Amino acid sequence: MEDAKIIALLEGYEAGTLTDEEAIAFFQWYSEAGMDNFQRIYAQSNISAEQRSTDPVMPNDFRIQLEEAIRNYEAEQRQQAARPVAFFRTWRLAWAAAILLFIGVGAYIYFQNRPPDSPAIVNNNQPANDAAPGTTKAVLTLADGSRIIIDSTQSGKLAVQGQTTVQREQGSISYNGTDPSNNSGTQSVLYNTLTTNRGEQSPPLVLSDGTKVWLNAMSSIRFPVAFTGNTRNVTIMGEAYFEVAKNPAMPFHVTVNDMDVEVLGTQFNINSYADEPDVRTTLIEGAVRIVNGQRSMVNKIQEVILRPGEQAIAHSPLNTHHSAFTINHSPNIDQVMAWKRGLFDFNHASLQTVLRQLSRWYDIDVQFEGTIPNRSFRGKITRDLKLSQVINILQDLDVKFRIEGKKLIVSP
């Protein structure tokens, strides 16, 4: 886990504002960090000596919930033994995550009480083949085609595009320029593209109007370095989360596949991966109008307006059983936002859905051997674990995993 994320979790712990998921992530990191690393992170935080607690301690009510979760897990396991093999073990992930946290707390007690400078315990049973989690990284392609690799090492000015300066500041990629209304209008519009590969997630991108964009793995956004005219237009592929700067006089438009998402000022997420069956636009705040550009479709709904907390599902034109759009009035917002919060969130997710996410985040290819039984999973896992740790959590009696180089082999 990156230092910035750990510092945010630590400060949230001190302020008492961590969610259960964030608490799990914090204690998992804390259990493995050792006191030297913990002190290093504490020194970088904004916590004063007066505010500082002596040692992080799991809240008692959280511990009670954890113990109850473990008891439920054990009861579920006993019930599973009496059920047919084909039963879907939907709670496996939730209880496994709870047990991981319990183990982490035990390791934390060990770190607290071991003598200074004593060697840490090393698990020699780690597989020789493994995959590290994804990192914050992206490629910025400038108007002339030159490319800049964006990672955690850059700071300061990256490039100048027309009258706009591109900077890496405070963890973000920012576009700062003069007011385009001051231009004569003869200057051509310059476009940049930010792209993430498998195993990458972009730092925040701050467009010239103040709009913020985050890209998940295997995603891209093409945008003008400065917005001109009466509208603001960008194009995306993959998955992106937007916090759009409000400007009713200059509507914000996102083009994805054959859809146009029109925004006034809002927060929303678009999932448009080519290997997913549908394009899902989830509105967190504000209002959006979505228009499907496939005008040749007969008797299909072509336009929807979303309210906060709703999700528009744009179906493939080959799917004749649905209209062009359907509306989910109560989507799982936590699940939609999980990737941005550093989590996998599986809610009755099929094995194929789970593996598509792992493939993108761990930069691996998935290969099936034999007939794979249907399985669904439910629960949350932090995205900073190694692949071997994740598949140990996902391991099912009738589904086995092994890692061979850049391949994850799945067999019954």
TrEMBL record:
Residues 195-289 form the FecR protein domain. Residues 160-186 are annotated as: Disordered. The keyword Transmembrane applies. The keyword Membrane applies. It holds the Pfam family FecR_C. Keywords: Membrane, Transmembrane, Transmembrane helix. The chain crosses the membrane at residues 93-111. GO terms for molecular function: sigma factor antagonist activity. Residues 344-410 form the Protein FecR C-terminal domain. It comes from the Bacteria. InterPro entries: FecR, FecR_C, Ferrdict_sens_TM. PANTHER family: PERIPLASMIC SIGNAL SENSOR AND SIGMA FACTOR ACTIVATOR FECR-RELATED (PTHR30273), PROTEIN FECR (PTHR30273:SF2). This is DUF4974 domain-containing protein. The lineage of its organism: Bacteria, Pseudomonadati, Bacteroidota, Chitinophagia, Chitinophagales.
